[in-house]
Amino acid sequence: MSGAPRIGLITNPLSRALREGRHALGGGATAGLLRAAPATPEELRFVLGDFAARGVDLLVVQGGDGTLREVLTAIPGSFEHPPAIALLATGNTNLAARVLGTAGPGEKGLAALRRAAEGGTLRRRAAPVLEIGRPGLDEVPMRGFFFGAGAFTAAKQVADEGLHRWGIHEGLAVALALAGTAARAIARRSHPLRTGFDMAMSVDGQPAPGGRRFLLLATPLERLMLGFWPFWGEGSGPLRWLDVAAPPRRLAAAIWAARWNTDGGRPRPWMPEAGYASGRADRLSLRLGTAFVLDGEVYEPGPDGLILSAPSSVTFATP
């Protein structure tokens, strides 16, 4: 059908599901598509440049949040006009796919996507993308959807070092790691996590209260997974942020409130006095004395801190 989008397919060859033989895409399913499985960021940039030259305007990404993060980061340097993105989710957590939609992980999902593209019935939605710059480093900004530092980084490392070895993957691993990290911080007042981390934050140019922090989170998404929503507060920017002072007070009650946050995102009356702050912003400037996590990967901060913003949006397509 004339007018149908030109489709390019990016597959992550390191995806655990694909390495285990699940969700493979046979030749019949991909017939007529531009297809590549880049194994390095350099290969990915080359492939995306080739796709752009060939007029691809619908980019199908088979992988998880990490694969999508690498694709989003590479797109601005490859496409003059960014393509729409469709997700075939095969990752561990698949947060973006759960929130923004997915065609499905394998051949059935790809077939449904191709039918909708050819029939002109694709559903599209624009979503702001988190951009993280590390001043002082000669690199393009990283792009993704969920930032965490402090206890969140510790939970991520627990999941990597322990739960995944036991065969516990996907959203369950994240939930168990976060729950375990919180439980240790609650149960042992002498636990190192309770003392927090050296982190300083400025919200739209206004410094936040100083001191050590237990947790920082930020996302441009409108919801998360497992019914968890820890954000509230005022502001008009696309970034939602959460700042928890150390040592964390009433942590169990705060977790419960985030799990059942059904009242429009309003905080419990005790939260500000207990060291919990949240809001919306256009720009966050951070100084971190610890590593941070972006969409499942741990990174070190730059010598001059981090700049978080969401200056642009990407269109996501589903059947």
UniProtKB/TrEMBL annotation:
InterPro entries: ATP-NAD_kinase_N, Diacylglycerol_kinase_cat_dom, NAD/diacylglycerol_kinase_sf. PROSITE patterns: DAGK. It holds the Pfam family DAGK_cat. It comes from the Bacteria. Residues 41-136 form the DAGKc domain. Transmembrane segments: none annotated. This is DAGKc domain-containing protein. It comes from Roseomonas populi.
